[in-house]
Amino acid sequence: MAHLHQAETWRDCLPRVKTRFPHIRASNAPSLLDDRDAFVRYLAKAHHLTLNEAKEEVDDFLYIEGLRSELRD
Prior knowledge:
This protein starts with 9 loop residues before the first helix and ends with a helix. The chain is globular. Helices cover 60% and strands 0% of the residues. Helix 2 (36-46) packs across helix 3 (51-72). The protein contains 3 helices and no strands. It has helices spanning 10-20, 36-46, 51-72. It has one domain. The protein is an all-alpha fold.
């Protein structure tokens, strides 16, 4: 995923995902790194959002993660 550091794994970023999206369950959530569309659908259902709202939330999260990655590099 372009906005996440290439060495990042789902396990590594999961704590930050859960902080941003507290209603997801790690055992049920598809990997944002592997299948963004499936994660957006899961997020929409878990947080009672529309698909568009969930997509915007994921876009915002990935933007912040990109900034975080730039600071780390």
